[in-house]
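README, section 4: Worked example with a bound small molecule

Sections 1 through 3 covered apo chains. Here we extend the same pipeline to holo records, where the ligand is supplied as SMILES alongside the sequence. The molecule in this example is adenosine-5'-triphosphate. Nothing else about the input changes; the structure line simply encodes the ligand pose together with the chain.
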Amino acid sequence: MEKIPILKLGDLLLVSIQVDMHDRLALALQDDLTGQVVKHKARGVLIDISALEIVDSFIGRMLSNIAAMTRTLGAETVVVGMRPAVAITIVELGMALNDVHTALNVEKGIALLESLIREREAVEAHEGPQP
Amino acid sequence: MKVLSHETLPLRQPEDVVLVRNKVRNWMQEEGYRLIAQTRLATAVSELARNALDYGGGGVARLEKVQNGSREGIRVVIEDRGPGIADVEQAMRDGYTTGSGMGLGLGGARRLVDEFEIWSQPGQGTRVTIVQWR
Ligand SMILES: Nc1ncnc2c1ncn2[C@@H]1O[C@H](COP(=O)(O)OP(=O)(O)OP(=O)(O)O)[C@@H](O)[C@H]1O
Ligand SMILES: [Mg+2]
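The generated complex, written as structure tokens:
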């Protein structure tokens, strides 16, 4: 079966979606990513969607789910490279994606991830390790 | 409204949803439609095709290049012979879902396109017709 590759870079996982996302593939990526976050104890996930020409409610929900699930597992998620036309249709569809951090490009995304991870570590140091 | 050309594609599996929405985008790209119009119609088609697949047990998508006077557009008819929708008004409402979705497909698709028409009859099926004008 086709699969979207997940790259490990230090404590980050990088995903660049370069293929057309049909629903089964989106669900597989969601499962795969959460599994990899646990396996590698990743602190951050970066998803590059610059190749995606459309994001419908299913893919939008996948992005929200990934952000929520990885957060529970101790990792922050940032989505980068959303095309302007995609950003417009997402809003018109009625999806807020409020819970998903976004950045313009990979470079800015990694910077954002690093600051989110630092913030989180500061909170954890203060409160003790999270369960 | 005059139909200049048309093509019918099956909706039987998730990959078909991708094929249909890509075809719509390719058509519009070739014809020089604005990028935002392409993105809107392809996204709406994706929502409706998925509904036909998930709730209607599969169906067909008919893509048409149409002309109305001097106006040109792309019309897409998505049809299934599934269980139909008992209360269309309720189904159109944002947030209403009988599945595991967000209930945004129908309402969202209507907001994305220039024309939207839905016909559904319990026991007979569902047909949604959408148009994007140039
Ligand atoms: N082709 C269809 N045949 C039968 N029922 C349908 C069809 N399309 C939609 N429905 C019904 O209308 C409801 C709302 O559809 P809509 O696409 O708005 O939301 P959804 O598919 O539940 O979630 P989302 O599209 O956000 O993932 C569906 O849950 C389903 O009950
Ligand atoms: Mg739907």
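What to look for in the output: Helices of chain B lie at 14-30, 35-54, 88-92, 105-112. The first strand of chain B starts at residue 2 and ends at 11.

Section 5 describes how to batch many such records.
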